[in-house]
TrEMBL record:
Residues 107-186 form the Smr domain. This is Smr domain-containing protein. Gene3D superfamilies: 3.30.1370.110. Residues 67-97 form a coiled coil. Keywords: Coiled coil. It comes from Trichomonas vaginalis (strain ATCC PRA-98 / G3).
Length: 191
């Protein structure tokens, strides 16, 4: 690894051109010292620290499963994290089948940006139409309570409710769980 690459990896928030300029003007050690005063030094994690970070980030996945995937992906934490996120996404997509007890369809909008939620909502409506289900079919859209959003503002929930309102679709927030919006895509709202 070149000195330039080392400095860029150590100070990822520093602009690349600044790192290169300092390196050429002052040399590695002096450039490193100056960058340490201006930017946060990122210490590479040991494999054990990477594993623990993954276990903390994915508390609902067993440590054994995380370890298996981590060992599979010799590239390290980024590839393991990517694979775990894909598994979670697949699981959420499987939830789009009707709940046997309630006969409700569920869609999970967690961890999506506003733009992704709008795109997913449009796909949801298209699927609802294509499934040709009865008029009174009810869907539960899991939008979250906004606890992880800036200022705890429920961006996804607000976006979904606005989309329903502009399209005249009947929707309501579930009283028992304010992180869920119940939607009847084939019924008009009475607002």
């Amino acid at each position: 690894m070149s000195e330039e690459e080392k400095l860029i990896n150590m100070f990822p928030s520093a602009p690349r051109d600044k790192v290169v300029n300092l390196l050429h003007r002052k040399g590695f050690e002096k450039a490193k010292k100056q960058l340490e005063t201006e930017y946060k030094l990122v210490k590479p994690l040991t494999p054990e620290e990477q594993f623990e970070a993954l276990c903390t980030k994915f508390p609902n996945i067993s440590r054994i499963h995380i370890e298996e995937i981590y060992k599979e992906n010799m590239q390290g934490i980024q590839e393991t994290e990517k694979q775990l996120n894909e598994e979670i996404k697949k699981k959420k997509q499987q939830d789009k089948t009707p709940d046997v007890e309630t006969h409700r369809y569920k869609y999970d909008f967690h961890a999506q940006s506003k733009a992704q939620a709008v795109e997913e909502f449009n796909r949801f409506l298209q699927c609802a139409i294509e499934q040709n289900l009865p008029y009174d079919t009810e869907y539960e859209l899991i939008v979250g309570k906004g606890l992880h959003s800036i200022n705890n503002f429920p961006v996804i929930k607000t976006t979904i409710l606005e989309l329903c309102e502009t399209r005249g679709i009947k929707a309501e927030v579930v009283k028992e769980n304010t992180g869920v919006v119940r939607v009847w895509p084939f019924q008009k709202s009475h607002n």
